[in-house]
Fold this sequence. Notes:
Layout: H1 11-24, H2 28-35, H3 39-52, E1 76-79, E2 85-88, H4 94-106
Amino acid sequence: xxxxxxxxxxxxxxxxxxxxxEQSGLTQEQFTQQQGLGLSTLxxxxxxxxxxxxxxxPGFVEVPNLLQGSASGRPYQLRxxxxxxxxxxxxxxxxxxxxxxxxVKSL
Length: 107
């Protein structure tokens, strides 16, 4: 089966089309029909865009150390809505905690 000669799009053209789609308020099907673009093409571009964006670490709120000066060496405990509990010893690495929180959210 021979493929139709479909136009190739530059990176800039793809970005412009994706911006138009995001601003259009249309469904993917409506937009692709209006633009004469294949639905799977738009979906692939959206996936590529999503995968190319840097992953955000969860936002953190500074919590005062209420145990400062206390002889208690107890770790911090984070409890998630899913029932998962994470204990953090003093001197934890903030980036690692962010990655662990993302992992817990994905469970």
